[in-house]
What we know:
Layout: E1 14-18, E2 23-27, E3 30-35, E4 39-43, E5 49-53, E6 60-71, E7 75-84, E8 87-95, E9 109-112, E10 119-122, H1 138-145, H2 153-166, E11 173-179, E12 187-193, E13 200-202, H3 212-215, H4 218-223, E14 229-232, H5 244-250, E15 255-262, E16 268-275, H6 283-317, H7 319-326, E17 335-347, H8 350-357, H9 359-379, E18 383-388, E19 391-397, H10 402-420, E20 434-449, E21 454-459, H11 461-476, E22 480-483, H12 484-487, E23 494-500, E24 509-514
Parallel strand pairs: 20-22
Antiparallel strand pairs: 1-4, 2-3, 2-10, 4-5, 5-9, 6-7, 7-8, 8-9, 11-12, 11-16, 12-13, 14-15, 15-16, 17-19, 17-20, 18-19, 20-21, 22-24, 23-24
Helix pairs in contact: 1-2, 6-7, 8-9, 9-10
Amino acid sequence: MTIRVQQTSNDYGIVVEPLSGEVTAWRDGKLLARSSRARVMYETRLPPVVYFPSEDIVAQLVAAPDHKTFCPFKGTASYRHVQVEGEVLNYGAWHYPNALPEGQAVDGFFAFMPSVATRIEHQGAEIEDMPTGNISGPVVDWLLREAWLAKTPQDLLAALGKKLVEDGVAVSRMSILIWSLHPMIAGHNCIWQRDEDEVTSRYPSYELLDSPVFKESPFQHVAEGLGGVRQKLDTNPDEFNFPIMEDLKEQGVTDYVAMPLPFSDGRINVLTLASDHPNGFTTANLGLIFECSALISRLFEVFALTSNATSLLETYLGKRTGARVLGGEIRRGDGDVIDAAILFCDLRHSTRLESELGRDDYVAVLNRFFETATEIVNAHEGEVLKFIGDAVLAIFPAGTGHDHACRQAVESANEIVRMLAIPDENLNDLTLTCAIGIAYGDVTYGNVGSKERLDFTVIGSAANIAARLGEHGKIHGREIVASDEVAGHISFAVESLGSLTLHNVAEPVEAFAIIAENGDGRDGD
Length: 525
């Protein structure tokens, strides 16, 4: 293994110095601590913190084992309640029982929360801040000038890892978990390894979040707002007890960090870094990354926002319609007049099912119905535009011709009928029936609605006729009913229903029952 020199061009640092003479901590005239051996810690861009030896603390400290916080430089802080003259101040003091190297100078020392120690006196003089400079160097320059050019989160992660290595950070592995807004996928996990040329992507499901693999991982610890994790695998291997640490140790990892990467909406994503350097990460290494973390977070958030917008639009509008809206068709009246086959599918016996099954099981029935219809329509080049109560409205644009659109719509209808007739073992072998109307014609496909609330839908007589044909089939026990503009362009057997007068349709419609492949096109009950 090649051991790289770790030298980054930034000034992040921690300095601990003894304070000469007597130092006292007070709370509104009540003495908390008095010591001639106190120490002050200066950390870049943080106010100085005074630490007192435990034996010099006058106030009573009561253990608070349920509360810990994390510092990537000093280690995991354990807390004490502070009791002084009958007043109990929860989590008022902290210390580092297993301090990392940067914090070992205050091992055995306690510090008070600023809200607890209202005044600290050091021989009458104030403790001044340590002067700090500016971070600069290759990583910062790249983040400001070039990182935005990355086309994907995978590209951004790989480029960031390589740039950190270039700048002297001994990072051997990086990963990021970005939460998503998707009905089935919980998030996107990208993993970059220094010695490999590609980034691995994983898409954990919501079920995985309930598994021991996730619950016992640093990801859950950080994502739940419990703070970050740093584990020096050669000095404090048992502090967090995450199973993954054994795997990383076998891969030669010596130091591991999982840090929160918050987005502007408050969600906490997770960035992890592993080092294979014998000494792990230096303070300058981690200081550089932590100082740049807000900018890194925003760069990844750009990808997340695009992905979430696409997912939400596809989920609520459909893939093709979602793409049109994302492409800029967002104003009232935006849309096209197109020729299409329109399918309207209505679940039968809904009122009875809800009464007999109860609300929860009925919702499960609706979900099965909608999922079955959507998957079949999508597989036949159509798109579900919306769910209306217990009905589905779908469109099959005639981009490749009148015949093709009608054939795809009728084949979808036939398969929906067939699949719903399969007993559902999760609901006592319940079978479902539906009534489907199909019509063809020109429709306006676009935005309608108010100025502030739009609906992307189809408007036209074909959509109205499809819904009315579905109603006719529902009343007369016909599973699939189509207009003559559809029936004359398919190879399925049909039965003429004559000229039908439909509600809110000006002219009578020549209608045909489609003879399904597995039956005569009639509902059996």
